[in-house]
Amino acid sequence: MDPRNTSRQCSECWHTHRSNRVDQARFACRSCGAVLHADHNGSRNIAHRGDAAWQRGAVNRPSHVKHHA
User: Fold this and answer.
1) What is the predicted pLDDT for the residue at 59?
2) pTM, two decimal places
3) CA distance readout (Å), 48 to 43, 52, 63, 64
4) DSSP code string of 23-50
5) pLDDT value, residue 51
6) pLDDT single digits (tens) 26-42
7) CA-CA distances (angstroms) from residue 34 to 38, 46, 58, 67?
8) Across the strands, what pairs with 27?
9) In 10 A of CB 2, how many CB atoms?
10) What angle do CA 60, 63, 66 make, to 5 degrees?
11) Residue 11 vs residues 40, 55, 60: alpha-carbon distances, Å
12) How many CA atoms lie within 13 A of 62 on its CB side?
């Protein structure tokens, strides 16, 4: 999973821009206006990407775990 731009991408609308990251602690999306703590926004993006990778089957599942679509 590529971690690039997790701190610059909006976890609400997916808009990515350098100026979304206001400072070390604040994130403010220039597109949808979402305002979040920067670490919370970044962690939501990482969670979304992890879930997407899991759904694509890019994550190796243990053989005893069954996939339900």
Assistant:
1) 60
2) 0.75
3) 9, 6, 24, 24
4) SSSEEE-TTT--EEEHHHHHHHHHHHHH
5) 92
6) 999 999 999 999 999 99
7) 11, 17, 30, 34
8) 21, 36
9) 7
10) 90
11) 9, 18, 25
12) 2
Q: How far apart are CA 34 and CA 60, in angstroms?
A: 34
Nearest-angstrom CA–CA distance, 28 and 17: 10
Both tokens of 4, joined, read 């690039």
Specify the pLDDT at position 68.
Answer: 57
Q: Which residues of the chain have pLDDT under 70?
A: 1, 58-69
Tallying the residues shown for the chain, one arrives at 69
The pLDDT, as a whole number, for residue 60 is 63
Amino acid at 18: R
CA angle 26, 31, 36 (to 5 degrees): 25
